[in-house]
Specification:
Elements: H1 4-18, E1 25-28, H2 39-43, E2 50-56, E3 59-64, E4 70-75, E5 81-86, E6 100-105, E7 109-114, E8 121-126, H3 150-157, H4 164-168, H5 179-189, H6 202-221, E9 261-266, E10 269-274
Antiparallel strand pairs: 1-6, 2-3, 3-4, 4-8, 5-7, 6-7, 9-10
Helix pairs in contact: 1-6, 3-6, 5-6
This protein binds zinc ion.
């Protein structure tokens, strides 16, 4: 599943290709993905200029010009890919791929959304409605933006009996940290992911916040983690998987202390950690 680094990689790839370009034509092959697509609002984006692409949590926000300043909201879901083809204005458009559900044709750029499992989404709202949008309003802190630090984690963890890992993965508190990066960040910070969050000392919170940021930043720098069916804008594979310290490394030797990496399962979700150097 694409996590924050993968979505940020798509944003960074797509933004310079689309910014300033006029959307000439929208084509929808279906009227729903995970949720219904607001067809009329999406079609009303035609002839508007893309002002840029932002990211909030794992949502891509394509901003368009005009008095109502519409924003297209794209989520990649479990298996979605937002590809951007570079074409000549007059060249024929490529045939639709299997599981390609919509296109935005910017003339020399063609955005194609391919999503076999259809957990992705396409929505649209006005810029002034964005903060109150049902999918945006309860989102927590961005981990790579000001406001996220040890003090924040310390305050959020007080009185919480749930695990450190579930705190990191609670999207109402902190967005964009999924299973892979939560396990990796705990290893970097030398804390056991299943410890109760309330037991975190302030110094550990500082370490943990820095680790969350460094693991996400490393993955973004590497172009996202590529596991199953994720590929980025130009379909280049991410390379971060090779650098993972604990995730999917059960039984292998810890890169820091050489003990074997352990795996435990909670509610069907695997947690990886090292008993030798995580406390
Ligand atoms: Zn270790």
């Amino acid at each position: 599943m694409p996590e924050l680094p993968e979505v940020e990689t798509v944003r960074r790839g797509a933004e310079p290709l689309l910014r300033g370009r006029r959307l000439q034509r929208v084509e929808l092959r279906r009227h729903d993905l995970r949720w219904p697509i607001p067809v009329a609002a999406i079609q009303a984006l035609e002839q508007r200029r893309c002002l840029g692409i932002e990211r909030r949590s794992k949502y891509l926000l394509l901003r368009f010009d005009g008095d109502d300043a519409p924003v297209a909201i794209v989520h990649l879901g479990m298996s979605g890919r937002m590809l951007v083809d570079l074409l000549d204005q007059s060249s024929p458009r490529p045939p639709w791929r299997l599981h390609e559900h919509w296109r935005m044709d910017f003339g020399e750029r063609l955005v194609r959304f391919v999503d076999p499992r259809r957990f992705g989404m396409l929505d649209c709202c006005r810029a002034d409605e964005l903060a109150g949008h049902k999918l945006m309003r309860s989102l927590g802190q961005e981990p790579l933006e000001p406001g996220f630090d040890g003090a924040f984690l310390h305050a959020q963890s007080r009185g919480k009996r749930s695990s450190i890992k579930s705190l990191l993965m609670d999207g109402h508190i902190l967005v964009g940290v999924g299973n892979i990066y939560a396990s990796e960040a705990c290893w970097r910070a030398r804390v056991r992911p299943r410890r109760a969050a309330k037991t975190l000392k302030r110094s550990e919170c500082d370490q943990l916040a820095a680790s969350v940021q460094s693991v996400l930043q490393s993955a973004i720098d590497a172009g996202g983690t590529s596991f199953r069916d994720y590929v980025g804008v130009a379909e280049e594979q991410g390379y971060f998987a090779r650098e993972l310290a604990v995730y999917e490394r059960e039984g292998k030797s810890c890169r820091r202390c050489k003990q074997r990496i352990r795996r435990t399962t909670d509610a069907g979700r695997s947690t990886y950690w090292c008993a030798g150097c995580q406390h």
